[in-house]
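Typical record is below.
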Amino acid sequence: MTSNFKMNDLQCLREKRTDVESGKDWHEHVWLKNDYTYQLEFQDGSAAERYQTRTISQARVIDALSWVG
C-alpha cells in the first residue's frame, strides 16, 4: 500500500461512510509529506471532529487504517 507514495499527494482516501440514521460522515486520509512523514487524518462524524497525527512508520499507517476501518 505505501511503497509507491509520492510527495504531498493524497495517498489514500478510504471509502467515505455515511451513517444513515445520523447523516454523519467518516473518512480517513493519508499523505506523504516532504519531510518523509505520513500525515493521517480521521474525520469522526463531522468536520468539527477531525483528528490528525504524523508518523515516519509505514507499519503505523497500516495499523491506524486497520483500526478505524
User: Anything to note?
Assistant: The chain is about 15% helix and 40% strand. The mean pLDDT is 77.
